[in-house]
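Bug: token stream looks shifted between consecutive jobs. Job 1:
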Amino acid sequence: MRHTIYRRAIAILVVLLVFAQMGQVALSYHRKQQEAAAAGQETERKKLTLWYTDEKLNAYLVDVAAAFEEEYGAEVTLQLVTAVDYIEHINTASISDLGGPDLFITSSELLGKARLAGLTVENDSFTAGELKKDFPQKAIDAATCGGKLMAYPFYFETCFLLYNTNYVDSAPDTIDEILDYADNYEATEETQNVENIFKWNVADIFSNFFFISNYVNLGGETGDDPAQVQLDAQEVKDCLAYYQSLNAFFAIDADEVTTDSVLQEFIDGKTVYTIAKTDAIAKLDAAVAEQGGEGFYGIAEVPDLTGDLATKGLSVTNSVVVNAYSKERELSKEFARYLTCERVQDLYPMSDKMPVCLNVDYENSQMPVLLDQYENSVEVPKLTDLSNYWIEMEIAFANIWKGNDVNTEVDAVTQKVMQQLQTQE
């Protein structure tokens, strides 16, 4: 009897030991699973999404995204999307279950709209000293909205003067000087191809606006103050009267002229002076290479009209914006800085886009002139209520070129735009 009880006790003890060991194994397995899961979360590759609308940026963005992934261990998905209703689509995606981009590239004229939609985060990635050293004030102003730096300045477009160095040695200070050149022009064997002394796209507001830009106020330095809008100064009318007078000298057909045709005629040696946009330089350099590598053009800032009527170019700055809805804000800021500053040396060679960053070297020694022109330009404003101004002024320029009364055209545009601004107050 005693042995039977002893054997049962031993059996019960063995069973308990087995269960205890099983419990320890299960607990150990559970702990290992938790540790493995935690480790997995720590090493899981973070992901960012960038939206943009210009396919010319493809090569640069792919290259920089790959470099950023290698250096920071974060995967960047690039999405080329339509420019139509761009901010609206970003907003809709951002508040949906699928989510929107962590960053997006946009022009200065849409930055105010993005801010009002709650899609922007302040750029606090640079010290004041870094901003002053790396960026022109024009770029900082273009990325500023509501008194704060709300984007990362990236690249710009502007207009400037081109002159054919086979025909003239230097750029004129004024258009009056171009008229003097035209009056005294005598055809020679060297100038046998010349058909136009001065030709530009008179149907393009971007090429025309420098005539009046020095005397309009489009929302102050940062372009977002509706109290600082002035469109009808007397100098504006004087400049437009001067613009109209040029039709008698150069007789450019607004219905036939295009930006591409104007540039091609300059390349072909048919034009002495023209107004061009930033993207023209790559085409000019390609033409130089085809012609044996000997340069034939000079770059200068747009000339004043006269000794009394000054000019400025028109510019648009594109910036990178960190989306306020992003779950990876800090990493997005890192990528925005990486994209617009740290790797921007490769932007122009890979996209023909002119970076606003100052610390960039160019093979073409004339490129710094474009930065000078950019700094001496009027930026397209951020005020959404001024969006119709460009359409109205393009029509006004066309009518004035055809001979319509300058005062009537300017007053009509001013009245429409100012009424819209007052309605929104």
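Job 2, same session, no restart:
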Amino acid sequence: MGSTSIAAMDSNTFSLSNPASYAQVKRFMFATGFTGSLYELNTGRQKYNSYDFQLPYLSFCLPLLSGDTAKYWRHWGLNVSLLPFSRTSYQSRFSNIQNGIPTTELYAGTGGFTKFQAGTGIQVSRNFYIGANAGYLFGNQRSSHASETPDSFKAHNVLRSSRIIAGGFVFDAGAIYKTKVGKTGTLQLGLNANIPSAVAARREEYAFTYNGNHFSDTSFRKSLIDYTNSDYSNTIGASDSIFNRTNARGNLNMPLGTGFGIQYTWNNALKDNAKKDNSFTIAADVYQRKWSEYTIFGSTEPLMDLTSFSGGFSIKPNTKQEGLTRMGNFLRRNEYRAGAKYSTGIYNLSNTVPVDTRLSFGIGMPMTVKQFNVTSVSFLDLTIEAGEMKGSTLANNLNQRYLIISLGFHLAEKGWFKNDRID
């Protein structure tokens, strides 16, 4: 539904965007998925195509307490997840003239950060739920820059590389208010927050001059993102070291992020003696994170705040209608979703704020299997997103069009920890 998730909560799924949603989980759940992406980059002069494939996340959720065992604290859930936090992968080459000397520059980067987190959500009153996540952020990121001039100018070629290795704790929290509206309606309001955190990090930096032109060599371009200082020296023959720092320590200061979401569901199944079970859900989110306040080792980065708006809807047809064909029954058991999202990018491209707009369409297909008195209630989710990250080609900024296809698996066991009675 356009990536709306801050106010999402029900007994059949959970939202990693708001840990308060863990409270309503009533069975053990496992969620994972696969994502494939196609990209077209447009510089205004040339177009490039690329693709990507990744495993987005692994997540487990289970109820610690469920039912009317107390006046409050009736529902309590636990979540453990492994999530990608950020990813860097680029290589670009530019040619210009500096002080009358033709110069070619090559930039490359690789790496990323992953978050392992554990969280809990609990119902604290009839309508109010709260939750929190504690995560450990870890990984490394390398960026390299090489500058070459023709041999005839007798100028020094220079290579500089920096690698950041980080590991530390990050935290986020959330709350959801849920109330009935009439006989068939449910209104949910959600809040979430990424709490500012300092992640310990270590930086390795080195720079040296070298001889010869190597940009046409594929192995050299690959080495910019794979090699260490000694590897460079052995491969291209460093002529003089400029600096070599291997143990600088500091912090990555993660900024504050806040979001608000609203969701309304109209469900015929909530009626007394309901003859229909069709439902309709509409939702909207707004989120902002202060990336302009992000610092690395005390230095600010040329970043801007992220702001996003998303909205969407989902439809579940009536499955109690009689006289349907097998195909008709299958189509009516599914949930159909659509939505849109608008967000601003965090990178400043020649004083141009990049804007990301996307449309999404999805289908959720339930898979219910009963075996050995245990009922498995699971879902297969297929989502297609199409969008564009737009800058200004007049300023030689990149415009990116993309198509993302995601296949998600939400596996649940309804009968866990259930003891059968033997007569």
